[in-house]
Amino acid sequence: MRAPRITASAPANWKLFRDIICQGKVPSAIIVTGLEEAEDRQGWWWKHKGGFDKNDIKLSTIAGAECITACRGKARSGHVYDEEYEESRDQIRRLIRSTILDNPITVKPLEWFQTITENVKEWSWCSLSFQDVEVPFEEASEAAKQMGSLPGFTPDFVEELRQKMKKETE
Q1: Are 2 and 33 in contact (CB under 8 A)?
Q2: What is the pTM (predicted TM-score) of this model?
Q3: Which of 30, 39, 24 is nearest to 11 (CA)?
Q4: Strand runs (DSSP E) across the chain, as ranges?
Q5: Which parts of the chain sit beneath pLDDT 50?
Q6: Which superkingdom (predicted)?
Q7: CB-based contacts of 1: which residues, under 8 Å, 6+ apart?
Q8: Which positions ≥6 away from 123 have C-beta within 8 Å?
Q9: How far is 32 from 34, CA to CA, in rounded Å?
Q10: Among 30, 90, 110, 160, which is most exposed with the fewest C-beta within 10 angstroms?
Q11: Per-residue model confidence (pLDDT) at position 120
């Protein structure tokens, strides 16, 4: 996310990513960008940590946090932020290496998709509630067919999904 403030949608996006898409099973980290002019990038996190805590983005629920320079800046005899950028790149690499799971999580695609759709139905995101949304089987079925063109979605998976959706609507 971009500094200097937490946007209104950040907590909802964080919950969607961490709790619903990753189902709380994948180490998740926060990378704060936009700190090219900060005197103390790492100090920025500790100074603003309270704002994250208030929005239920707590350090205890994340694998780590890094405050970085995400661009090299304008070119003037090199780039203005080359040194900060290189330091930031190393920080991110260390963070990723420190959170790699020895035993990667594997989930069956249909179970993962079903869990997500069940959670999203009961959750509101950015003031939108999905509890009362009714999608006709024909529309949902067409959407499922289109998923077949996405990587990782096999024809068998799509057909199994369509059959489950059909049962739900009967």
Answers
A1: yes
A2: 0.66
A3: 30
A4: 29-32, 64-67, 124-125, 128-129
A5: 130, 132-133
A6: Eukaryota
A7: 7, 10, 30, 31, 32, 33
A8: 15, 20, 130
A9: 7
A10: 90
A11: 64
d(CA 151, CA 143): 15
Closest CA to 96 of 29, 33, 22: 29
Token look-up 């780590």 returns: 64
> 103: Cβ–Cβ under 8 A, 6 or more apart, which residues?
none
Whether residue 85 contacts residue 71, with contact meaning beta carbons closer than 8 Å, is answered with yes
Q: Which residues, other chains included, contact 118 with Cβ-Cβ below 8 Å and sequence gap of 6+?
A: none
Residue with tokens 């079903």: 114
Q: What pLDDT score does 86 carry?
A: 93
DSSP assignment letter at 34: -
Q: What is the pLDDT of residues 59-90, one digit of tens each?
A: 777 888 899 998 988 877 778 888 999 999 99
Give residue for tokens 């989930």. 107
